[in-house]
Write a structure and sequence with these properties.
The protein is an alpha+beta fold. The chain has helices at about 5-15, 45-65, 95-110, 120-130, 135-145, 175-190, 195-215; strands spanning about 30, 35-40, 70, 80, 90-95, 115, 145, 150-155. The relative contact order is 0.11.
Length: about 230
């Protein structure tokens, strides 16, 4: 998959009414093995771009059958990317924030989702409270939720249907059909491995919840594939 980081900034800025160009953001991005590393400054506009990029990457990967998980941390970081003074230098990332993000994700991301350290979540929450009516705050409130098991996470299905941010729903039938198919396949293939099935079921339930909220019930994962949670009605 070809991912162009400038494309995210070009799409994000007008979406949330920011008069910024890609050059105004200090976002850095590279991938290695099956990892994707993104970093931004602590400015809330840049954090918004990070959330947007995670949302878009995870949704695109899922439409191709790849579920994503990850962690977002705040702290000191060295991230070399497209260094104009040394254009042949390879990308490089290290520092406490990188270690914290990896440790946080590997310890607490019990399923395919991207979770945020509490101090990142609090920073976003505080900034949104300062400008509650801004499009940026509405975007972040729509996509960043506190999970029932604790960590805040990026809701990659928040654009289904309408909300305070997404005033109009668009036709996503083709994408939703692909996601439906891939999740059903993942559930079938992990049915003999309870730990992996639990993770796939978590994603399936998040998908179903978003579909039900949006009235898109024709794409629901059926009960034959996804049993009810214990205690659910």
């Amino acid at each position: 998959m070809d991912i162009r980081i400038d494309g995210f900034a070009q799409a994000f800025a007008p979406l949330v009414d920011l008069k910024m160009t890609p050059n105004d953001f200090d976002d850095r991005f590279h991938s290695f093995s099956d990892f994707i590393v993104m970093s931004v400054r602590r400015d809330i506009c840049e954090i918004g771009l990070l959330v947007f990029a995670v949302f878009k990457v995870c949704r695109t990967l899922l439409s191709y059958g790849f579920a994503s998980r990850g962690g977002i941390a705040m702290g000191d970081l060295y991230h070399r990317h497209n260094d104009p003074e040394n254009p042949t230098a390879p990308p490089m990332v290290f520092g406490p924030a990188f270690v914290d993000a990896y440790t946080f994700e590997s310890t607490h991301a019990d399923g395919p989702r991207v979770i945020l350290q509490n101090k990142v979540w609090q920073h976003i929450d505080r900034k949104c409270d300062e400008r509650p009516s801004s499009k940026l705050s509405q975007f972040l409130r729509t996509h960043v939720h506190r999970a029932e098991d604790g960590p805040a996470y990026i809701n990659i299905f928040a654009d289904l249907g309408t909300s305070a941010f997404y005033e109009f729903s668009s036709n996503m039938d083709t994408e939703l059909q692909a996601i439906h198919k891939h999740i059903c396949t993942a559930l079938d293939e992990s049915s003999d491995r309870p730990h992996q099935f639990k993770k796939n079921a978590q994603l399936a339930r998040e998908f179903n919840a978003a579909l039900e909220s949006a009235g898109l019930t024709r794409h629901l994962i059926p009960r034959t594939k996804l049993p009810k949670k214990a205690g659910a009605h």
